[in-house]
Amino acid sequence: MFSLLLRSRPAGVHVARVSLPKYRSLSTTSPTRTNRAIVYSQNGNPAEVLSVLTYPSLAHPTSGTVNIRYLLSPINPADVNVVEGVYPSKPTLTSNLVQSGKGSKDEPVFIGGNEGLAQVTSIGENVDGLNVGDWVVMVKQQAGTWSASQNVNAQDIVKIPNQGLSEVHAATITVNPPTAYNMLMDYVELQEGDWVMQNGANSAVGQAVIQIAAARGLKTLNFVRNRDDISQLKDQLRKIGATQVLTYDDLNDKSLRDKVKTWLGGKEILLALNCVGKGGETTEMLRYMGKDGHLVSYGAMSKQPLSLPTSAFIFKNLTAHGFWQSRWYLVRSRAEREQLMATLTSLMKEGKLAAPEHEVVSIDGQDSDGEATTKIRNVFQRLAAGRYGKKVLLKFDE
Amino acid sequence: MFSLLLRSRPAGVHVARVSLPKYRSLSTTSPTRTNRAIVYSQNGNPAEVLSVLTYPSLAHPTSGTVNIRYLLSPINPADVNVVEGVYPSKPTLTSNLVQSGKGSKDEPVFIGGNEGLAQVTSIGENVDGLNVGDWVVMVKQQAGTWSASQNVNAQDIVKIPNQGLSEVHAATITVNPPTAYNMLMDYVELQEGDWVMQNGANSAVGQAVIQIAAARGLKTLNFVRNRDDISQLKDQLRKIGATQVLTYDDLNDKSLRDKVKTWLGGKEILLALNCVGKGGETTEMLRYMGKDGHLVSYGAMSKQPLSLPTSAFIFKNLTAHGFWQSRWYLVRSRAEREQLMATLTSLMKEGKLAAPEHEVVSIDGQDSDGEATTKIRNVFQRLAAGRYGKKVLLKFDE
């Protein structure tokens, strides 16, 4: 039923690189629907269950809360799993968007989205350290960032410095860069010149790992899938700081051992980051791990179990962990979260951590909820079909 | 070629329960070959490569060394892997057993055996804290304990109190009981009343886990293979302190979840010990593990890889480790090793840690090296065929 929609990009879903001037509708009337959210009542395929819902302007924020307006909200792979209902984090039901019908107490809905950059628009009593116009990101998980505006608890947001940082940088700061940063910090005490190994090195997290490692003086041994334009990809990853880039096919080459040995120059690899989650390739990669090494898995996109040789645990003292940034936020203090954001924004401002390649999808205020719903579902269908290949960021017309 | 030998136990290899009075040869002459070792020149099937070698009496020990005489030396499963050459620990070559031929510099040999109880027979200069007659066990790995006597570095042995402890207790104290004890201590801080889960619960380590856990007030959820005499095995394990005993088949029973929940009474299992090393059953067992749990694998007998769901690592914060008692000895101090032995001997003396079921195989001093070799090879063939089912301990005639 969606195949026809794929032929062309539907009118009203404006796609633009954020570095270009923002595309504006040529309509002479200004957008009429400025408060909208992408919601669902039941789990399922996002291209079938999501819909766009318009709601009235927010009341003045109550004590301890602020009103925010989202500037950009990414669609992350895990967001799709949340809508499907197969992700461990669940959003809470929202019942105060409207007075009656969908989004009210009669028919509560989930709002999609876990990550996003917002701006403070008004501030309730008993809120310290925030001003109107401040950039904020959510530290609460599954907050429903695919919204135009929200009333949120001040404790659930963290201020982000908006000088020298692009909107895309700030909108994508809470999931992938901290995953990369914390995996590099939390498991092995690495010194300048030490090596880290990873698969899925061209994923969003993988690229952040390469850049943060390079900024810290760490060397990276990176594995990617072989492909037609492999030399281009290798160049791209080396350009952002990758020390060595190999394909999984290279793992079959017996001469690789000697090569890697030469590269390491007597060092041992004690940290391996596993995005792929598959058995065979991960096991092969582990051959290059030293004794007492740590394998940290963070990508569960592959539904296949992790198959590891028992002997690696017993005789090489391998320890296998899982990293989940959502848990990190839950168990760490507010001060630690703020420190993390400060560290990452510094790296971004110094040009050491680039914004991801991306496309901005704008939701036109002129469109009816029905029209906007059709367009949003089409975006998710294109995503599922792998038609993007870069990060998609949602933007609601003001 | 060995099948004929299996028909009956060959003369000269005396098998007796050590709790019974020791069987003595009725021969009127006393044994003539009192210094012997079980050696091999190349890796392979123990039933094919091992041979018994007689060597002269030891010289008086040099400074810092002592001469010891082995009382009992177990054959552990890992010892077979060492002889096969598939185990990460390798013994060092011995070239001073005899002046010429096999066991000399011309033809150095490996001596089998990693664990054993010995008695100090003479002491060199500069050795503190040891007396003739003291019981000692090896802290050096692959020391060649399948010997009648040895000259050893005093640093490579630890004294064991010989009051209130059987020879079998002391001879089997360095591998299985410390594996059980350290796995219970090193990964999760368990409080009285907490639960531990394990598979292979009727293995030597498994039974030690049950007993040590019970002595510490911990509860155990134990999994074993289903078998004809399962209720007998369950009774036996409960008798030594198992709280609950289940079979892997029970894991298919959907009502098990509720049962386990009731048993746990609100507690979560945070430590699982994996002897089997197989994927499926381990994964099934992990369903009963709480968040932030630790899976410790120590048995590599199954050559199959450990297959674990990536989601357990990421979303349940599972950490997977390997435990190897050999590594523990390498990285811990002498004081820690002695403390460990003291703790285990206390448990044994208090009757809280029973000696393993066992058979003693005596090597008759009347037999020629050729005869003894045939008999020893037969023992290993019986072991490989699973003909024992209890721990085999070697004893050299004095």
UniProtKB/TrEMBL annotation, chains A, B:
Catalytic activity: a 2,3-saturated acyl-[ACP] + NADP(+) = a (2E)-enoyl-[ACP] + NADPH + H(+)
Keyword NADP in record: yes
Entry annotated with the keyword Repeat: no
UniProt keyword terms in alphabetical order: Fatty acid biosynthesis, Fatty acid metabolism, Lipid biosynthesis, Lipid metabolism, Mitochondrion, NADP, Oxidoreductase, Transit peptide
Gene Ontology BP, a term: fatty acid biosynthetic process
Domain Enoyl reductase (ER): 48-393
Subcellular location: Mitochondrion
A GO term, aspect molecular function: enoyl-[acyl-carrier-protein] reductase (NADPH) activity
Domain of life the protein comes from: Eukaryota
Assigned GO CC terms: mitochondrion
EC number assigned by the record: 1.3.1.104
Spans through the membrane: none
Family the entry assigns: Belongs to the zinc-containing alcohol dehydrogenase family. Quinone oxidoreductase subfamily.
UniProt protein name: enoyl-[acyl-carrier-protein] reductase
Species of the source: Leucocoprinus leucothites
